[in-house]
Amino acid sequence: MGSYAAALIFCSLICSVAAQAPVVTVEPRTATIRQGESVSYRCQVKSNVQPVQLEWRRANNQALPDNVKIGPDGSVLTVANARPGNHGQYRCVAISAAGRSFANVVLNVKYPSKVQLTPAGPLLIRTGESMAVECHVTGRPRPTVTWKRRGSTLQLVTQEINDWPSVRPEDSGVYVCQADNNVGKSEAEVELVVVGPPGTPVASVNIEEMTAIEGQTVTIECKATGSPTPVITWSKLRAPLPWKHAVADGVLTLTDVGRQDSGQYICNATNIHGYSEVYTDMEVDTPPYATCLPDQARLQPGNSLVLQCLAHGSHPIQFTWSRVGRGSLPVGAETTREGKLMIASVKQSDGGTYKCVATNHVGSSEAVAKVIIKGELVFWKSYQINNLLCLLYF
């Protein structure tokens, strides 16, 4: 009996070592596809106990969608014409007499953004009341949200809810919610109509956004309806009006504008029933003003030369280098888009005056830098001494 028991124990140990649960691997472990694309996963099993049965299921144990197919031998799972609902984890389960094991895979399905507004509008609301419109956004990756007013490029808010604590007549208009991810864009709009009591001022301007050139004269016209006739005044956001300004019959005139005059101008129309405000955003573009650093460089042959051209003005600004009195820059000279001129190792012949021209859509400006190679001075002094010796000799 002792030998028989020992044999049974030995056999049990051998069998327990041999009869191990299957080892499961799946390739790929993670896949990211767009809506409408397809992907396949292959389940591979290592087991010394046969047969092995393979099963595919959702990791949450829900049924496989109808566009998910299993291959004939059960090892391949294919998601065809992927939908957003296919996003998630899938599990390959291997079952044998020795036990069961599994491996999970992840499927990321990207799809374009989609927008829905609540309430949908058009919305009729009285002056002074509060109003909020929610922009419901779906999409993967999560889209970014932007609200704008139709006819204006100004960004209002970057959140899903656009609210008005107290609406005014000038808030009337069409508002657009835009959603964007790296798969696609979507937008929806809602019309807001604000009504007030008879006689309430309603102001309007002939232009909401404008670009002027430095030195120009600009006029912005503001009109207002209401009874009694509203009084129109102009102001500038967070700054006084430019000193070269005039207001007549609701028209604001700005003379010889400069970059400092850029900003938001506010027209206010007021009567006994209330007030109304509208805005014009003005950007003043200026030509470049160029300078060189340094404006003079003294070098010895073999030294490196770096000249930097700087320019103030409206962007973008392009830089062009040349050498005064020469057809082109020296051999080996390099320039950059940022306005640098570089020569790694200067030669005697590289001395001279270099000119930088800065250009934008308004105009251009130039600056010069003088480059002196010290060998030139040594040669000139030697030439002067030789001439002096010749004069003394004769």
From TrEMBL:
The keyword Nucleotide-binding does not apply. PANTHER family: CTX-RELATED TYPE I TRANSMEMBRANE PROTEIN (PTHR12231), DPR-INTERACTING PROTEIN ETA, ISOFORM B-RELATED (PTHR12231:SF253). It comes from Xiphophorus couchianus. It is found in: Cell membrane. Residues 1-19 form the signal peptide. GO terms for cellular component: neuron projection; plasma membrane. Its main location: membrane. Residues 22-108, 112-193, 201-285, 288-374 form the Ig-like domain. Keywords: Cell membrane, Disulfide bond, Glycoprotein, Immunoglobulin domain, Membrane, Repeat, Signal. PROSITE patterns: IG_LIKE. InterPro entries: Ig-like_dom, Ig-like_dom_sf, Ig-like_fold, Ig_I-set, Ig_sub, Ig_sub2, Neural/epithelial_adhesion. Pfam families: I-set, Ig_3. This is Ig-like domain-containing protein.
